[in-house]
Amino acid sequence: MAVKICIYALPTLFILVSFLSHTFASKTLNPEPELATLSSPPLISFNTTILSPNRTFELGFFSVDGGSTYYLGIWYASIPIRTYVWVANRLAPVRASPPSALLTIAGRLAVADSSNSILWESENSTPAAAVQLLDTGNLVLLSVGGRGAIAWQSFDFPADTWLPEMAVTGSVAITSWRSPMDPSPGEFSLRLRPPKFGEFELVFNGSVSYWWTGNWTGTRFTGVPEMTVPYIYSFRFSNPFTPEAAFDYSQSTSAESGLQPLLSRFVVDSSGQLMQYTWSPQADSWNMFWSRPDDPCRVYGRCGGLGLCSSGRSLRPCTCPTGLRPVDPTGWSSGDFSSGCSRDALCTDEDSIFNEIGHIELDGAVDATFSDLSRGSCEESCRKNCSCFGITYNSESRICTNLYVSAYNLRNSTASATLFIRISPGKVLSKKSKWKVRILIIGIICALVANIAIAPPLVIIVHRRLRRLRRREEYGGEDVGLKVFTYKELSSATRGFSEKLGHGGFGAVFRGSLPDSTPVAVKRLERPGGGGDREFCAEVRTIGSVQHVNLVRLRGFCIEDPHRLLVYDYMPNGPLSAYLGRGSKRPRLSWPASFRVAVGTARGVAYLHEECHDCIIHCDIKPENILLDSDFTPRVSDFGLAKLVGRDLSRVLATTRGTRGYVAPEWISGVAITAKADVYSYGMTLMEIIGGRRNVEAPSPQAAAGDEVGEEGWFFPAWAARKIVEGDWGAVLEEEVEGYDGMEAERAARVAVWCIQDEEAARPTMGTVVKMLEGTVAVAAPPLPKMMQALIAGESFRHGSSSSAGEILVEDGAGAAGDCRR
């Protein structure tokens, strides 16, 4: 029940402070550090705000539903996108009434409605006489007794955002919003993991841990390698592995990092992922360049009970399997999927059917496994138990698993078992069934108007034509000359998807053979339930229309719900990454082969940038995405979801990707992303080709002995760049390389350093890179990039560090792309 505010005559000290306080007459208030406000008049009303001294943050009331409910919160005042970082009354919004915030007679900050009923108040035991919004975004209450003593602060009661200088302790958890439009506490939290408090974890519903950082080593968390190299952040962990543990971080100043100060925040998103954002002034948007878990479908309970999660659908990843419906349709429409899905099947449905969902992994179900059963017997065993909601069945091993109660985290899998969910008969028709009904109707009509001799072929023709038209309208694959395969054809070509080549960014890749014996690689996209069509269409149309000797060729695709598959030329010699790294068992490339790979890769990327109809920014150049054919000719792959930038556009937002160790500095600094980001990634890859090793691995004995670097602190490009700039490029070459050409090696080494310059204007275009490597353009001695200088001078280069790296991870974040003219 709401509590009435009591307003009494205040002590003389309070009256004096009130008299000297700032008059809150304007709509937006800019307090001085010693600003004090008492219980009358209100500190803030629904149409007034308070700014921090540097005008970065603003305190006031906001509404997410057009004015029906109000929350007291803090947001960024200096950017055009309203971004909330703290909410006071998350569980008690002011409804249908003008809100106000004030200091009560007890010296607590309170949120009240128009009838002076308190809906929320701060939990300080020491009375406060002043309120101050700091430049850090921390709202503090200053006590009566001592000048500047903090009686309460918002940093001790965070919402979903972790700001610089905010300490997370064993008693503090950062909890997500319920949905993007509901600030109330959600199901997901970030906290120090009890009882040891030596690592962070993300938890569902306060109990189920689904991601953790690994233990603190004194310089970093074992499961967060991005913290190895200093660049933007400095981390502090006080009293780790004790109940008094406290972890906070700060941003490096421009003098320390060489970059302009930027806005940055960590957020426990309503999706359950921990995300890191920086503000891009050029794009007027937030860049999300780091998130955990990488796959949103690895978040426990993301889609609630029996909800199906599709990684490719970033905005609405959750769907209900066929035959199921959302428990809370209103919540689902607003982005709150926590209620999950429900079945129509009842215990009395003895004739309940089992709807095929696909190759699905799941968590949280109680199960019972039986051997050597037919699928029919497996289904019958489930029907006998009221709480059995479905089965998984492996037709090859005849292993049956009954699933009871409910399950979470339904997601696509490469497992051989298939999930079937028990539903009432006749409740729903799948998409495939609906198409079958339509075709059946067409067949009946044809049979009535034609004689029996021509009806069957006419039905077949109509069937095929409708299928072609549907695919052409929805996905536009045939207009770029791609073959449309059936799922049955590709299952046969891959022998039931039995030979797995690897797992890429969007699904598993299998080896196959077409009827004419042509070897192919088939990528089975992780798109259960028909989701992720935007990404699928982008990859099909982009790759299908691009042809170059140094780019992987897309032969065709399959789109049969719930299946999405891409068919590529098979590359028998695998990815370049298989030939890099220390170890005697790894295959090695000779210098001529390595140099040929370097030049060919540059030509392929240059074609994407400069010769396609639209400039294609790959965004993920790395050895894993450079495949080698039978002649060791390099083919750049996995650019189907790269950013397409029209040459007439100066700036555009897009879905971007990247990998730790290859991402250009502008991703962090907020500079607009252009094709020069690919040049940087290529330079990092060229370093690996020259050295025959990975960029982040233990040093060679010679390097370790000469530079006194510890294994934990080894970052190859920093060491190699220094050697190349000093003229000692020979020290960078792979130790066992055969037949190297000195002029080629020196050119390649210098080009690599030019490509990884901090300023993108200093980097050559990929077309110029090709000419430099071929020797038609001279390569001057490059300067040492500033970031590499910092790494060499910093502690992390030699002995590890407690700060985060410029080598960041980008996953499905929003990045900016600049003009990509030739």
Automatic annotation (TrEMBL):
- The chain positions of domain Bulb-type lectin read 35-154
Domain Protein kinase residue range list: 495-777
GO MF assignments: ATP binding; carbohydrate binding; protein serine kinase activity; protein serine/threonine kinase activity
Instruction: Report keywords, A-Z.
Output: ATP-binding, Disulfide bond, EGF-like domain, Glycoprotein, Kinase, Lectin, Membrane, Nucleotide-binding, Phosphoprotein, Receptor, Serine/threonine-protein kinase, Signal, Transferase, Transmembrane, Transmembrane helix
What topology does the record note for this protein and the membrane?
A: Single-pass type I membrane protein
User: Which InterPro entries does the UniProt entry name for this protein?
Assistant: Bulb-type_lectin_dom, Bulb-type_lectin_dom_sf, Kinase-like_dom_sf, Pan_app, Prot_kinase_dom, Protein_kinase_ATP_BS, S_locus_glycoprot_dom, Ser/Thr_kinase_AS
Q: Which GO terms describe its biological process?
A: recognition of pollen; response to other organism
What this protein is called in its record is Receptor-like serine/threonine-protein kinase
